[in-house]
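Narrative summary of target 7.
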Amino acid sequence: MRMMMKVSIPVEAGNKGVKEGLLPKTIMGFIEQMKPEAAYFVSEGGKRTGYFFFDLKDPSSLPLAAEPFFMNLNAAVEVTPAMNVEDMKAGVEKATKRP
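Modeled conformation, tokenized:
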């Protein structure tokens, strides 16, 4: 299932992660392991924030994806199912055919 993972990194932990190289190492490790179809980086609420869209084939892989952000960067992690346009069209079509 396609998931959107939002990672918010507190300023102090992010600063330390940049200085020590742990921030890019953690992000690149996630990208290499989970192979997201898209990754976006923004400043949200004054925090370094990343949005990653990836396929979660096995729910037991979720800790593998999230734990490095928790442990290395003291990040807040939110994971939400997500759809692209094709998924949304198919879902709406199915919903309109329900009795």
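The CA atoms of residues 42 and 53 lie 14 Å apart.
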